[in-house]
Amino acid sequence: MRLFTVQEVAEKLGTNPETVRRWIRTGKLEAVQNSRREGNMITEEMLRSFLNNYPKYAATWSRTMGENALPGLMANASMSIHRQELVAVLTAYSGKKLTKAELQNRAQDIIDQQSASIMRKEELVRRLQSQIRQEREELEETRSYLDVLKNAGTIRRRKQR
Hints:
By secondary structure, the protein is mainly alpha-helical. The protein is built from 6 helices and 3 strands; from the N terminus they run βααββαααα.
């Protein structure tokens, strides 16, 4: 299990280390402290829990960490970001900061973004399924070669006797 320092978490979330310490003090973010000298350490599980509760930071974490992001995090962050955008748009509309037409346009933009995101993920799934099929075929071919080798060895042994 990987441990993160307050400084590492702050850098990856684009915030100040003191903000991370405040989250720890207020209970928003769990941490362990083995000694005052080492400071607070955050486990992957503690970080995942925090990021699931605060999607804004989950998106930032995933952007800065790329493929090293915590597994399964980006899908949740992506969906939560769309929900956050929709809530912001609806709040602006209810506060009369947007007209009905502006609200409809923004909502349509969010729908378009979500649709594009789904299409990209479906394409990725298709490519992965194709790779899996190809690898299975290669695996079967390798197994066949192994069987041939096993049988060839048996035939040679019989001839030697």
